[in-house]
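Sample 3 of the quickstart, ligand zinc ion:
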Amino acid sequence: MRAVTWQGKRDVRVETVPDPGIVDPTDAIVRVTSSGICGSDLHLYEVLGAFMRPGDVLGHEPIGVVEEVGSDVSNVSPGDRVVVPFQISCGSCFMCEQRLYSQCETTQVRDQGTGAALFGYSMLYGEVPGGQAEYLRVPHADFTHIRVPPGPADDRFVYLSDVLPTAWQAVEYADVPKDGSLVVLGLGPIGDMSCRIAQHRGAASVIGVDLVRERLDRAAARGVTTIDLNEHARDLADVVRGLTHGRGPDAVIDAVGLEAHGAPMARGAQQMTGMLPDALARPLMKKAGIDRLSALHTAMELVRRGGTVSVIGVYGGAADPMPLMTMFDKQIQIRMGQANVKRWVPDILPLLVDEDPLGVDDFATHRMPLEQAPEAYAMFQQKADGMVKVLLSTS
Ligand SMILES: NC(=O)c1ccc[n+]([C@@H]2O[C@H](COP(=O)([O-])OP(=O)(O)OC[C@H]3O[C@@H](n4cnc5c(N)ncnc54)[C@H](O)[C@@H]3O)[C@@H](O)[C@H]2O)c1
Ligand SMILES: [Zn+2]
Ligand SMILES: [Zn+2]
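Result:
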């Protein structure tokens, strides 16, 4: 089959690799029809390369049709249309019973000390072949799938794999009070969708911050108050306070993560680890940290006293200084983590109806054939041609 493979820093290629087959009786094989590229894939493309091996198949946002199931799979059958969550979870362990699916104890990657295994997400998360491919092997398939009806285009459901539950969790964790205010840092797919969900769930004021014109415009067109960081890098806190009763918003979502613009110290560390051989870079990255923390620091600065910061952007590293005094003194509540995908699906599915309140049908700005994945990655990283979200088509 054809698959998008990681080959090196900023080097992905579509190659012919062996078709996946049933290995364990709990597996299913899915024929992928569409697959998203995520902001998280950009971390692998650039700063997390030390955790990848050339040839690793990327991707964790697939939708498709079940082709084959193992002998122990009874919840899903060949011919079913399914979205595959980005994480692999068993559905029945201690963590899954608490619906903390991204912490599944059956698939936790213990040798790396990380949570549930993820599709296409490096040795940190189990080195499981990903879904930017014609076929995907799905372990623990009885639980690791979301069945969706045939009919509507893939766009309607594909974001159940990641964007929708991730943004839903970001908003849920932000805990915006009724008629409250929310600032969303970063208007990529996750931040944009977080704004839409917060509006839908009744936040009175949603303010979005980014540096990319098309992304700001797109959020503004849906009623988000936008702030261009290029113009307000120095006085962002003042501008936000001016919009929030002089106090700051009730909650801030950090939908940026570890590649935020504007933190030169961490950029140095990222570049330094980028030049080391992988075996040296890996422990250094885990220890010394590779974050550019500016978005997270901004979140702490902006949020009102006693407010909540919801971190949905991906961070790594352990040694970056956090503004503990501010966090303590302002009595900030912080919640974060990998989205527990299936936890939120029952809340989201009723919104994926004809009225399309969240605007999923035209959420993707680009659709490209799988064969053009190298161009798609480059465009998405550079935010070229107004690209906010791209789906790769495999059929
Ligand atoms: N927690 C999860 O389960 C989960 C799931 C999916 C994605 N993510 C993470 O969410 C983050 C966003 O993903 P995405 O797909 O939207 O990616 P993206 O890279 O397209 O979006 C990031 C946006 O942040 C903007 N930005 C950069 N620096 C900024 C700053 N200092 N202030 C404000 N905006 C800034 C960029 O211009 C960009 O538009 C990534 O870190 C990704 O890894 C987490
Ligand atoms: Zn993702
Ligand atoms: Zn589990």
